[in-house]
């Protein structure tokens, strides 16, 4: 069979199997418990019934996720350049960078609400905090993981520190940067959704998927909750796909992970 | 008599508090010589090249290249054992890398790049990326990158060591062909006696612990040399002689005659 066709067919086939399994599981449950796993028809109905609500919340969460993600990308590049340029700076700042990741969002949330108030700004800050760490760790690692002989080449060419950084270390770090970006692209929508739940604004029209999930949960609308989860996943997929596209553009010509199969 | 092109006087090199890697080394090389350095590992051949490149300073003694201290000469190029090409740049941009670092103006850069690529016969591959090249082609790009500097001194640290024998022989012949068209002095580190004899006008056998010159051989085979040279009886005799001396050095007896 054509391998290209197979590559598309297999995931689709798996999706059909999973949906069939879901439906079967629904019917295997005792009638009184079936509401826990709504059948596909009810799930579809939840999408049409809450469509506008979900779309608006998704737009809001997508915006916040993108905002926090973009902020994390920009700040992490700057921070990585600093960290990679000095060992002293690295040992001094690294523990505090870890601190950013270690303090639980549940604790940061009430503080943020006091400082900046509930709403988009707080959601973006939380998303930033969640997606920043993998980016800065990977990018710094990349900037430092240049082959010794290539550094020697630059030193013998009497390259300035700036030349060594921007003509050697930065391009060499691109694959690492994109690895970090991919991890953060998965974390950012989940982060934005959770952040909305914790520090989002409940004002109508200004709430995201987190608050929406909270409302569905309060109203016991299980099918709608599942629909919210699916929308959240789709946001994650979209962001990861966008990042993979960027990585492809930047790396396909030279990086081994994009070596054409005929080589 | 003009001063020698390269001059080392009582040079000792140690790293930190360690034992000397090179001790009390004195050596003169005239302009245009092709000198091979051969010897067991630990004899400091690569260290000697690094001292000349200015990448690391000598612990004591003096080194001069064209009467100047190493590291100040613009006319020196280094070829590593690995091709050390930048994988994100195509062949043309790789050849230009060092010129770019030196801020050579663009028109001059292009001229030197094209002529270096022509010398290593890779003009057709200018737009290819390193991963599309064979090991031998990568090494030729690396050589072109060095030649683009239009060096007067070429330091080669086992440049063909990672290649198969056929490719290695071809590249050796190409290197000599380029040398016919250009004026540079070469210091060439190798593990292959045959390669050293084929390429050099002079061979230094170094002994280890501490690194020092055990033997200094002239190679009186006429240039230009080509694949015919490898069948020349005096070539074969020299290979045998150098091999015997090298073996004696490896067994710890540097003064034994062949």
Describe this structure in words.
- The complex is a heterodimer of chains A (263) and B (258).
- Chain A contains ten helices and no strands.
- Chain A has helices spanning 3-28, 40-49, 51-85, 87-102, 105-116, 120-144, 148-156, 161-199, 209-218, 222-251.
- In chain A, α2 (40-49) packs across α10, α6 (120-144) packs antiparallel against α8 (161-199) and α9 packs antiparallel against α10.
- Chain B has helices spanning 45-53, 91-101, 106-119, 135-147, 165-181, 193-199, 233-250, and strands spanning 6-14, 20-29, 34-38, 60-65, 76-79, 153-157, 185-189, 202-207, 212-218.
- With 258 residues, chain B is of the alpha/beta class.
- The radius of gyration of chain B is 18 Å and the shape is globular.
- Chain B contains seven helices and nine strands, in the order βββαββαααβαβαββα.
- Chain B has a six-stranded mixed beta sheet, sandwiched between helices. In chain B, strands 2-1-4 form a three-stranded antiparallel beta sheet, with helices on one face.
- Chain A binds chain B through residues 147, 149-150, 152-159, 163, 167-168, 171-172, 174, 253-256, 259, 263, and chain B through 53-55, 78, 80-82, 84, 86-89, 97-98, 100-102, 129-132.
Helix fraction bin of chain A: over 70%
Largest beta sheet of chain A, briefly? none
Q: Give a count of the beta strands of chain B, DSSP E runs of length 2 or more.
A: 9
Flag low-confidence runs of chain A: none
Largest interface: A-B, 23 and 21 residues
Q: Helical percent range of chain B?
A: 25-40%
Give the number of DSSP strands of chain A.
Answer: 0
Shape, principal axes of CA atoms of chain A: flat
Largest sheet: number of strands, sense, barrel closure of chain B: 6 strands, mixed
Adjacency order of strands in the biggest sheet of chain B: 5-6-7-3-8-9
Q: Percent of residues of chain A in beta strands?
A: under 5%
Averaged pLDDT of chain B, please? 88
From the N-terminal CA to the C-terminal CA of chain A, the straight-line distance is 22 Å
Number of helices of chain A: 10
Q: Which strand-content bin applies to the residues of chain B?
A: 15-25%
Oligomer class = heterodimer
Number of contiguous helices of chain B: 7
């Amino acid at each position: 069979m054509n391998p290209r066709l197979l590559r598309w067919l297999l995931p689709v086939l798996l999706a059909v199997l999973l949906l069939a399994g879901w439906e079967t599981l629904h019917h295997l449950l005792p009638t009184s418990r079936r509401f826990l796993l709504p059948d596909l028809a009810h799930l579809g109905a939840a999408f049409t019934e809450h469509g506008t609500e979900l779309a608006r919340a998704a737009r809001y969460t997508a915006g916040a996720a993108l905002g926090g993600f973009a902020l994390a990308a920009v700040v992490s590049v700057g921070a990585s350049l600093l960290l990679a340029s000095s060992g002293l700076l690295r040992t001094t700042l690294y523990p505090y960078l870890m601190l950013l990741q270690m303090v639980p969002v549940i604790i940061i949330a009430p503080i943020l609400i006091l400082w900046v108030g509930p709403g988009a700004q707080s959601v973006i800050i939380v998303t930033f905090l969640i997606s920043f760490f993998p980016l800065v760790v990977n990018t710094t690692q990349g900037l430092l993981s240049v082959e010794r002989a290539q550094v020697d080449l630059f030193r013998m060419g009497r390259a300035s520190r700036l030349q060594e950084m921007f003509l050697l270390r930065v391009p060499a770090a691109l694959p690492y940067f994109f690895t970090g970006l991919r991890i953060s692209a998965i974390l950012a929508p989940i982060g934005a959704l959770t952040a909305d739940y914790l520090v989002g604004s409940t004002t109508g029209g200004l709430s995201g998927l987190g608050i929406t999930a909270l409302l569905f949960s309060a109203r016991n609308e299980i099918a709608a909750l599942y629909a919210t989860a699916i929308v959240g996943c789709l946001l994650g997929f979209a962001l990861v796909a966008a990042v993979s596209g960027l990585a492809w553009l930047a790396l396909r010509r030279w990086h081994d992970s994009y070596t054409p199969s005929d080589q | 008599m003009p001063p020698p092109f390269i001059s080392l006087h009582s040079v000792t090199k140690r790293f930190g508090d360690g034992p000397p890697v090179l001790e009390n080394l004195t050596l003169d090389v005239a302009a245009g010589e092709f000198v091979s350095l051969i010897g067991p590992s630990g004899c400091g051949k690569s260290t000697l090249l690094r001292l000349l490149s200015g990448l690391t300073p000598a612990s004591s003694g003096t080194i001069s290249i064209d009467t100047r201290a190493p590291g100040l000469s613009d006319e020196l190029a280094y070829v590593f054992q690995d091709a050390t090409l930048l994988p994100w740049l195509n062949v043309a941009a790789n050849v230009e890398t060092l010129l770019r670092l030196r801020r050579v103006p663009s028109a001059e850069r292009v001229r030197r790049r094209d002529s270096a690529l022509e010398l290593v016969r890779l003009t057709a591959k200018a737009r290819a990326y390193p991963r599309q090249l064979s090991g031998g082609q990568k090494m030729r790009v690396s050589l072109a990158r060095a030649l683009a500097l239009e060096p007067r001194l070429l330091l080669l640290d086992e440049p063909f060591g990672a290649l198969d024998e056929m490719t290695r022989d071809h590249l050796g012949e190409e290197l000599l062909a380029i040398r016919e068209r250009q004026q540079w002095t070469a210091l060439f580190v190798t593990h292959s006696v045959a390669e050293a004899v084929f390429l050099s006008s002079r061979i230094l056998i170094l002994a280890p612990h501490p690194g020092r010159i055990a033997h200094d051989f002239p190679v009186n085979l006429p240039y230009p040399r080509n694949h015919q040279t490898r069948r020349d009886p005096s070539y074969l005799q020299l290979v045998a002689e150098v091999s015997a001396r090298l073996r004696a050095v490896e067994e710890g007896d540097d003064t034994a005659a062949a």
